Amino acid sequence: MSEQIAEAGRGSVNAANLTRNDYKGAPSTLCQGCGHNSIASQIVAACYELDLVPEQVAKFSGIGCSSKSPTYFLGRSFGFNGLHGRMPSLALGAMFGDHRMKGIGVSGDGDTASIGMGQFKHLVRRNLPFVYIVENNGVYGLTKGQFSATAEKGLELKKQGHNPYTPVDICMEALVANATFVARSFAGDPKQVKELIKAAFSHRGIAVIDIISPCVTFHNHDESLHSYVYGKAHETPLHDITFVPAREEITIEDFEQGSVREVELFDGSRLVLKKLESDYDPSNRWRALAMMDEAEKNGILLTGLIYVNTEQPSMYDLYNLPDEALNRMSSDRLRPTRESIDALNASMF
Amino acid sequence: MTQEPTAVTENQQTQAIVNDFCITFSTVNGSGSATANTTLLRALFKMGIPVTGKNIFPSNIQGLPTWFTLRISKQGYLARLEKDDIVVAMNPATFSKEQEYVVPGGVLLYPDDIKLAVTRTDIHVYPMPVKKLTKDAEVPPKLRDYIANMVYVGVLANLLGIDLEKIYQALDFHFKGKKSAIMSNYNVVVAAAEWAKANLEKKDNYRVEPMNATEGYIMADGNAAGALGSIYGGVQFVGWYPITPASSLAESFQEYLPMLRKDPVTGKDTCVVVQSEDELAAIGMAIGAGWAGLRSMTSTSGPGLSLMSEYMGLAYYTETPVVVWDVQRVGPSTGLPTRTAQGDLTQAAFISHGDANFIILIPGSVTECFEFGWRALDIAEHFQTPVIVMSDLDLGMNQWMCKKFEYPNEPMDRGKVLWEEDLQKMIERGNGQWGRYLDVDGDFIPYRTVAGNRHPRSAWFARGTGHDEFGRYTEEPDVWERMMNRLLAKFESSREHLPLPEVHTMPNAKIGIISMGSADAAVIEARDQMLAEDLPTDYLRVRAYPFSQQVKEFIRNHERTYVVELNRDGQLKQLLTLDNPELATHLIQVSHLDGLPLTARWIREQIMTQEAK
Ligand SMILES: Cc1ncc(C[n+]2csc(CCOP(=O)(O)OP(=O)(O)O)c2C)c(N)n1
Ligand code: SF4
Ligand SMILES: [Mg+2]
């Protein structure tokens, strides 16, 4: 097969000269209809549309059905499937290998809000530039249907009976830990998921997206908060989101005057948030917390960009790093000079 | 061996004891005695006299008794002594007890405001006017307690003949040339020395004399040495969480990185240090960095090592290089966190669940802490596996006279890492194939690419789940077995590639001693003592696990080999037995655990008693 024919057979390409296929992973082994699958597809779509080079993205996960999904997207990217609840530390260390790369982690509600709560919050407070997706189904899928920390109080599950405890809200935990980008979405709202992922990749800091992602096998009763039916009935977007890449001009005329807010992201791209019922300001952390609290009381699934702060220095900014990748530094730049050892010994008496 | 207390005789007064005694300082934790003690240590060292200093301190910041012993040894022995020749008793709370430990003919120095009874009649007693001399010193009241310790420095200088000029140099070094600090301390030293000269009649026999025995040596602690060795080894990522006695290792990076590790090209930093939220995260970060091609490490002590065990298994199975320093303390649980032991050895060897084995390096001196600092990084990257370096509190936190640090005599071994062009060649060589876990060279060590490699076929997926030679998920029984057997073969192949044991023999020796780590100092001295009593010994110091073939031969060649170590269960003996079941009867456990460094006397007594049977 000549190169030309191969080219022609590739279908449409993006600005990185790659096809959608170049962003795909292995076929999913998760259950048909699992919310996690739809999120994996949106990660593929977002990366394709962002023209990311797969070799310059690293992907990470913990343990769970959700954490299996990094094999189902970005097959040409380096990945590390770590330990249950310990993906944040693994990713943090790894991202310093080549800090010019993009990083994405996929976790579950058990992985993040139970066993991994500590690492999650500490990754957040360090503000590592990293897309942190929680595929939140309110249950432990992989271990077959136990309550997770995000399951609502009173939830009834087949093997477990009633959940006696109040739930953890991942977005609120992120906000309290000073996250600089917090969003919530719903696997049943793929367009919003995709736009949020694109924005998250363009944010210089931690970007937490808590995505309600129904487990069709163990936790999909119509009346439970993490089901498709409930989500469809109760999703209330804060705004209509459009991600505008840096290279594209947007004309405000495209939108009705006074009806949009814009958030400029680190790389010059923008998020256009079109007002829906009320005008929501995602730069007020306190207001965000109050609103989340209110929505939770009323059983409303609020989705959209809950909070963003583009001013906070990222973790990389706190280190005096060279522009090039640390992992490409040659040995002679890593070992102090032969002469230095004499001065060192002289100082040791 | 203990002598009956007798009154000090004329005879004792005339036999000078020169450069061979020990001084114990008994103070209250947090009273600032460290400056005074290290000043004496440095001054003696500057006089060319072999000297070591050991802290015995409680797990507390302020208020409890703490001891510092300074051993002066013309023969260069560095181990702890069980007796006190000279005691400086600054702490009223332990004053009465302290007297009991002084050898007959020994010396007791104390502040004259301690009004407690001196019950011993067979020792020399010198009260010191500490209050008066510090008052005269004209320093701010809040500094008085600190300065008070300089009084005993001055009195000892006079009594023992320590050169004041050397004390000045020591202070100058300590206060980094800051004149006001140097002088406010030095003035007290001089005043105290003058007071002693005018008022004390020296009756004891202890003296120091300048020697020329510290040439080529430095004074350092193992933690700083470990950090420095790692810095010379090109460490690029350190994740750590504070814990005694390991903290000062990681903190040394803060001290030394700015001067040693600015990139010569850009002037930027080439090593990232992150204080993590716990040890689970410290090891996770270090493994992430190691996977991404950085030379990475963490440092901890027993409790932290326990927390790292799950991640260690992941690193083992994914073949990720990482270095873990374990500066051991006394366990289990919180144990005695400020006391020393070698009790984590078996935990380290078998850390993590399932079939896993780990390379261990065991430095026996501060100089070796430096050397193993860089070697560990080489070994980890060479074998693509975790390496645990086992130090301990005694080695890590005490001041040892040791050989100068030597510049690494080997180029960095970065292992089999493929960048874009290498990978292209590899693919061409492999007829279009390359697999992360393929044993291409037949040495059980595969090739790896690291994140950031832009070759479109460079990426692979690291996973703790079953994988084949190409990193693909599989549960195939034979693949699992094959992969696990290769990992074992790789581990086995490291035996002769690790620091080999150090062997010292004596003519006509019939029995052997095997030991490790900081126990070395006491073993060396004990062997000389036993030789003096006609019991020559051969000695092998283990420096790495898995053990070299030499270890087996040593055990085979000695009918009885005493395994000397600092723990209850004889953990080194356990590992030796596992490796040499056919020789198990040759091994005799000599293990001891009281939280204090081993002494030559104890070892000698154990072995001589056994041999007498
Ligand atoms: C240390 C440890 N404890 C327990 C487990 C078992 N385990 C595997 S996945 C999982 C829960 C996963 O739940 P979640 O993160 O919500 O992912 P989901 O499967 O629901 O997507 C548990 C408890 C494990 N792998 N490791
Ligand atoms: S068990 Fe639930 S979470 Fe797991 S793959 Fe199936 S649907 Fe998804
Ligand atoms: Mg879940």
From TrEMBL, chain A:
GO terms for molecular function: oxidoreductase activity, acting on the aldehyde or oxo group of donors, iron-sulfur protein as acceptor; thiamine pyrophosphate binding. It comes from the Bacteria. The keyword Phosphoprotein does not apply. Keywords: Oxidoreductase. It holds the Pfam family TPP_enzyme_C. One of its GO terms (biological process) is cellular respiration. Residues 63-211 form the Thiamine pyrophosphate enzyme TPP-binding domain. The keyword Oxidoreductase applies. This is 2-oxoglutarate ferredoxin oxidoreductase subunit beta. It comes from Levilinea saccharolytica. The lineage of its organism: Bacteria, Bacillati, Chloroflexota, Anaerolineae, Anaerolineales.
Automatic annotation (TrEMBL), chain B:
Residues 229-392 form the Pyruvate flavodoxin/ferredoxin oxidoreductase pyrimidine binding domain. One of its GO terms (biological process) is response to oxidative stress. Keywords: Oxidoreductase. Residues 30-192 form the Pyruvate/ketoisovalerate oxidoreductase catalytic domain. It comes from the Bacteria. InterPro entries: 2-oxoacid/accept_OxRdtase_asu, Pyruvate:ferred/Flavod_OxRd, Pyrv/ketoisovalerate_OxRed_cat, Pyrv_Fd/Flavodoxin_OxRdtase_N, Pyrv_flavodox_OxRed_cen, THDP-binding, Transketo_C/PFOR_II. GO terms for molecular function: oxidoreductase activity, acting on the aldehyde or oxo group of donors. This is Ferredoxin oxidoreductase.
